[in-house]
Amino acid sequence: MISRFTHIMVCSIKKNFSLDLRSLALFRVVVSIILIIDFLFTRLPYFTLFYTNKGLLPLKQLFLYDSFWAGTSSLNFISSDSVFQLALLVISIIFFFMLLIGYKTKWVLLGTWILLVSFQSRNFLILNSGDTLLCLLIFWSLRLPLGKYFSIDSAFQEHKEKTNWFFSIPSSAFIFQILMVYYFTYLLKTDDIWKTGQAVYYALMLDNFRTQWGDILLQYPRVMNMLSHFTYYVVENLVPFLFVFFGIWWRFKMMLILVMCFFHLSLGTFLHLGLFSWVCLAGWIAFIPGEFWDRIKEHLPQKNHKLFVYYDGDCSFCKKMVLLIKTFLILPHVSFSMAQSDPQALSEMEKQNSWLVFDGKTWWGRWKAWAVLVSYSPLFFYLSPVLKIKKMSLLGDWFYGKVAMNRKKLGYLLPHPGKEKECSKVVSILLSCFFFFCFIYVIMWNVRTLNFNYYSKYMPKEWNRFGAFFHLHQHWNMFSPKPFDTTGWIILSAIKSDTGDKIDLWRQGKPLRMNKPIRYDTSFPVFRFRKMIENVTTKYKKHSGNYLSYLCNKWNKKKGGRYIENIEFIYMRQKIPPPGGILPIPEFVSIRRKSCPKR
Q1: pTM tops 0.85, yes or no
Q2: Which H/E stretch holds residue 387?
C-alpha cells in the first residue's frame, strides 16, 4: 500500500514538473520573435550609444566603476569598435532566426545564450527585469528539447519521440525559476501600501511608465484597489502555491496559465515595462499541458483522402522540401507520396514538370500547388488568398523555376534525415549535476535578496562570481517594497553658441520649457532609453556625463555651424500625492552639467 502511494506521488510530481514538447516548441518560437524584435528595433539603431566607447558606457569605466559587471562573461569586451559591435549584433540576429526555424537547435540555443549574455554584460544601464528573466529562461532551456516540434531538426529526424512529456532537473528548474519571480516579488513587497490597495495607483502615477490606457485606469480608484490586492495576494502569492501542489490536474493548470497570461497582457497594456510582460508570457506558454494540445488535435481535420501531394522520389531536394512542408504547414489531413508510386501522378508530373497537389478534381502544379496546400494549413490558411493573386502567382512561378533549376545544389544546404545524436551518459550525468548545482545556487541567491546582511553568512559575497559569469544573478524587486513615491520628467538644457538661446535637446532642439510634456511616456524612442534615463538620474548618476558628451558630439556634428556650448541634465521631480490629492509644484534637480568641446 505504501509503495503504491509512493509510486503515485512520484508520478504526480514528475507530471507536474514535466514540460510538453509542443509547448516548448511554441516557447522557442515566441522567444525567438522577442529577441529578433528587440535586437532589430531597440538595440541595432542605437548601437553606437549603447555599446561603443563613444556612447553611454565606455569599457574602461565599466571595469573601473562596476566590478560585478566587469566580472561577467561577454564577447563584447573583446573590442568596443563600432564595426565589431555591429558585426556581433548582425550575427546575433542571424542566430535568432536560426532558433526561430529550429535549425541545429541545441547549438544555436547555446550560441544565442552566449551572445545575449554578452550584450547584457556590455551595458547594464539599459536592462530591466525582463532582460534578466529572458537570460535565465534561455539558460535553463539549454538542456530542454526545444526543437522536437515545428523545426527543421524535427522535419529531418527519423526517430520520433514516444511521449511528448519531458522531465529533468532543467525542466523543474525552468518551472521553479518562473514561479520564484512571483513569490520572491511577493516577499519583497513589505510596505503596507500593497495591503491597503494603493500600490497600483502609485505605479500608474509614474509618468514615464503609464500608457494611454493607464490614464483611463487612473479614473477608477476601486478598480485600482482591486488590482492591487489581486496582484499581491493572487498572482504573486496564491498562484505559485496552487501551481506546485495542484498543477497535476491539467484543466486547473490551464486555468492558472490563462489567468497569468491575462495578467501580463493587462500589465503590458497599462504600463511600459519593456520585455518583462512578453518574456513572462513566453514562460507561461511553455507550461501549457499536453492534454490541451491533444484536445486541439482532435478538432483538426483528419486525413483527407481527396487531397494528395506527389513529389519526385528521385530528387533528394524534393523529398526534403516535402518533409519541411509537413512540419511547418501542419498538415495531418494530407497524404504525401512519391509520384513514381502512381502512374497517373507520374504522367502528370512529367507533363507539368512540377510537383503536384491533387484535390480529387484538379492537378495543381508549381506555385498554385503551394497556394492550395497553404489553404489547408490550420496555421497559415489566411495567407492563401494572397498567394492566389495573379501577380503573386507569376512571381511565384518564376521563383519556382529558379529553385527547380538549382535543386541539386540547394539539396546540399538542407540536412539529411537521420537520428539525432545524444550526449554520452557520462556527459549527460555531469551536465545534470551542474544544472542541479545551479538550481540550488539560484534558490540561495533569491533567499539572500530578502535580507542580505543576515543570509550573506550562508552565501558570501565572494560567491557572486559564479552567478555573474553564468548570469544567474537576479533580484525580483519590481515595485518593491513599494512603487516609487516620486515622479517627474527630464530636460536636456543646452545653449546655442551663435545666439545664446536655450534649447531642449530631449525635444529635438525646441526652445527650452520647464513644463511637463502632454504625454511624457512617448518622449522615449524605445523602452531602453526609459531605463537608461531612470538609471543615470538615480543610482548611476556617475554615468550621466557620458550621455551628455555623446549628445554634444552628435548634435554639433549634425547641426554644422550651429553648435551648442553647454549642456545640463535636469530632472523635474514631483512628489506623488495620496489618492485624490493634487500634484505639488515640481522640484528642480540638476543632475550634471557639462561644457561641450569647442569646434
Answers
A1: yes
A2: helix 384-387
